Amino acid sequence: MKRIVKKDGKILEYTLICSVGRKNVLLQALPEGKVRVYAPKNARLREMDSLVLSRWDWIKDAHAAYALEKKKNAFNPENGVLIEGRCTPVVFCRSVKNDVKLLDGVLFVSMPALDNQRMEEEIKKYLSKLALSKIREALELYAPTVGREYGRVTIREQKTRWGSCSGKKNLNFNWKLILAPKEALHYVVIHELCHLIHFNHSEKFWKEVEKRMPEYDIWRKWLRTNGRELKI
Ligand SMILES: [Zn+2]
To answer: Which of 27, 141, 163, 217 ranks highest by number of CB atoms within 10 Å?
Structure first.
């Protein structure tokens, strides 16, 4: 249930969740200004209100920290964007039509007005298309060495995976591979293609990967170490 507490003319809303199994009270300050209190079934509402009031400053500090983190992670064109491992400057151009172009190592983004969120979306769309074309190029390069048929090739927004090969031999790739150095993208393409030979991560599978990219382990480790930093 939603509850509201007041202090110095300011209000704070929190969600109270009472359950039979719970013995103690747990208070959580969550992102986006949310507060949650887990309490035993017979908890007194007034006591829960005063608990929230007593932690008022702590909750406000936690919410401010979340907001700062969000601001720090927000897309900022002044920082440029990573494309194939290189920091690429972003130049905004005012235009009635939305358009993104990569020219001589500079990303030109045309939009009616400067809006960082819209710009982030447009760049993401552009980079997903660029990722698909670079992945197709790599597939054309390595698929003949594997000699097996594959199905559809799709680009996805994935949190934890760089690529996957389905039982139906469809290949999926993470759009963020375009942010990584070219070799990392090639390693993932080779990795998924080799799953067409061995649908597992056996020693034989890794031998097939190594045949096509002797230094594959460098890029496997690179993605493991730097993958989380790959964002625009
Ligand atoms: Zn795999």
So the answer is: 163
Name the CATH superfamily, with its identifier, for domain 79-85+124-229.
Answer: Metalloproteases ("zincins"), catalytic domain (3.30.2010.10)
Please tell me whether residue 54 adopts helix, strand or coil conformation.
helix
- The alpha carbon of 195 and the centre of ligand 1 are apart by a number of angstroms equal to 7
CA of 99 to the centre of ligand 1 (A): 35
How many Å apart are CA 38 and CA 136, to the nearest integer? 50
Dist. CA 217 → ligand 1 center (Å): 13
Domain borders along the chain are 2-73, 79-85+124-229
In three-state secondary structure terms, 15 is strand
CA 211 to centroid of ligand 1, rounded, Å: 16
* Predicted confidence (pLDDT) per residue in 181-204, tens digit: 999 999 999 999 999 999 999 999
Count other C-beta atoms under 10 Å from residue 173's C-beta. Answer: 27
Question: pTM surpassing 0.70?
Answer: yes
Percent helix, percent strand, percent coil in the chain, to nearest 5: 45, 25, 30
The structure tokens listed for 61 are 């500090």
Beta-bridged to residue 37, according to DSSP, are: 16, 27
Q: For residue range 126-149, what is the model confidence (pLDDT) as tens digits?
A: 999 999 999 999 999 999 999 999
**How many whole angstroms from 105 Cα to the centroid of ligand 1?**
32
Q: How far is the CA of 158 from the centre of ligand 1 (A)?
A: 15
Amino acid at 92: F
Provide the 8-state DSSP code for 122.
H
